[in-house]
Amino acid sequence: MTTQQIRYFLELANVLHFWNTAEKLSISQSTLSRQIQALEEEFDLKLLERDKRNVKLTAAGQFLKEHWTTTLNELDRLHLQAKKIDVGTSGVISLAYPGSISSGFLPQLMRVLTQEMPELKIELTEPTDLNHEKLILDYHIDIAISRDEILNPTIQSKKLYAEPICLVVPKGHWVNATNFTDLKMVENENFIISALHNTTYFSSLLREVFKQHNVEPKTTIESDFGSVILNLVAQSLGVSILPYAFKSANNKAIRFIELPHTVDLYINWRRHDPNSIIKRIVSCSEALGKEYIS
Predict the structure, then answer these.
(1) What is the distance between the alpha carbons of residues 62 and 65, in angstroms, rounded to a whole number?
(2) CATH code for position 63
(3) 184 and 104 in one domain?
């Protein structure tokens, strides 16, 4: 049995037509028939019920279709990872990141990596579900830069730096860094923030900050996208609380007022991943992180 035979069977199991399947696979119908027959003989069972007009799966064929599909998908993921390991300084690395670093840390890191490893292809993704742990363990990404440390024994994490979170107000707002004393001052303002009922790390941090300041924010707009929030604040639609990193966006229509609270930035990867490129990216990230607020 070969993986090619299994792929032929899976394609036929989806199409359920020998001639159409053979055409799709760019092989002859007789070749397809021989490969399917070879599988049936090896397993000593019937995978398909055939007549002159119809093809349908047997119960055994349906069972193998479901399990072989899962197995081949996993095999493809393993092959992809093996290729990444084999190529050394070239190849493909997938990296997830939070939107807050897209104007500062991330472009600087990309500049360093493209200089150090010019043949490396980097796939960037900003996951909306924030399930970095699953993405790493399923090999959908290789590295996750995140605001929280992933607590899993098979994942290694390192803190890159910490930075303040800030009250973000329109440029002409009456609150400024000189007269600001407490969030109570803006309790009656319209807030544009991440939904406080979310289970994300930053939403949890916001809940704690408001609790410490005994503030019940009047949230008028909810968004998990910092760039959107910046633009809305710039239009004087409300105020917000965001990491200091968003200041790198250089939006001249808003001001940042530092709060006595910090947020961390971590880099996370598979603990025993043998890919040397990942180790180099982690090293470059740590060196760059030392240049940031700590």
Answers:
(1) 5
(2) 1.10.10.10
(3) no
User: From residue 38, how far is each of 23, 34, 41, 71, 163 by CA, in Å?
Assistant: 20, 6, 5, 20, 63
Per-residue pLDDT of the chain (294 residues; tens, 9 = 90+): 888 999 999 999 999 988 888 999 999 999 999 999 999 999 899 999 987 667 899 999 999 999 999 999 888 888 877 776 665 556 789 999 999 999 999 999 999 999 988 888 899 998 865 689 999 998 899 999 999 999 999 999 999 999 999 999 999 999 999 999 999 999 999 999 999 998 888 999 999 999 999 999 999 999 989 999 999 999 999 999 999 999 999 999 999 999 999 999 999 999 999 888 899 999 999 999 999 855
* DSSP class per residue in 133-181: HHHHHTTS-SEEEESS----TTEEEEEEEEEEEEEEEETT-S--TTT--
Amino acid letter, residue 42: E
What distance in Å separates the CA atoms of residue 75 and residue 47, rounded to the nearest whole number?
A: 22
Q: Which residues touch 219 (CB under 8 Å, ≥6 apart)?
A: 190, 191, 192, 193, 195, 196
The total domain count for the chain is: 3
Cβ atoms < 10 Å from Cβ of 112: 15
Q: Examine the domain organization and report whether 154 and 270 are in the same domain.
A: yes
**Measuring CA to CA, which residue among 277, 140, 272, 145 is closest to residue 201?**
145
Q: Are 46 and 58 in contact (CB under 8 A)?
A: yes
Residues of the domain holding 286: 86-160+266-291
Q: How many CA within 13 A on the CB side of residue 76?
A: 9
